[in-house]
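Minutes, project check-in
Item: structure for the 117-residue chain
Input as provided by the requester:
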Amino acid sequence: QVQLVESGGDLVQPGGSLRLSCIASGFFFSIYDMNWYRQAPGKERELVASIPSAGGSRNYADSVKGRFTVSRDNAKNTVYLQMNSLKPDDTAIYYCNVKLLGSTDKWGQGTQVTVSS
């Protein structure tokens, strides 16, 4: 069974930092690109960051460039999202995602990030 489990979401003040983790199981993690999405109340889900299967060049939404860093540890089947200089607009549920064969999306349960003073 494919499973993605996110953790690390919390309440944090503006300017603070958080590191999200996503532990994957049930598929060959090391050959798949991994993605982070987020969804704020009343807004559409948006792609935040992507990382290739072997790491290297990564993609980020313009709104988070320079502040967020995505990384992965294939030995641990884990992808991370380091979030720095957090803003209230970063408040959202953050989801780990993988697109498997046949473009089948698999999602984690989400982890809540709230940025507020």
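Outcome recorded: The longest strand covers residues 92-100.
No further action items on this chain.
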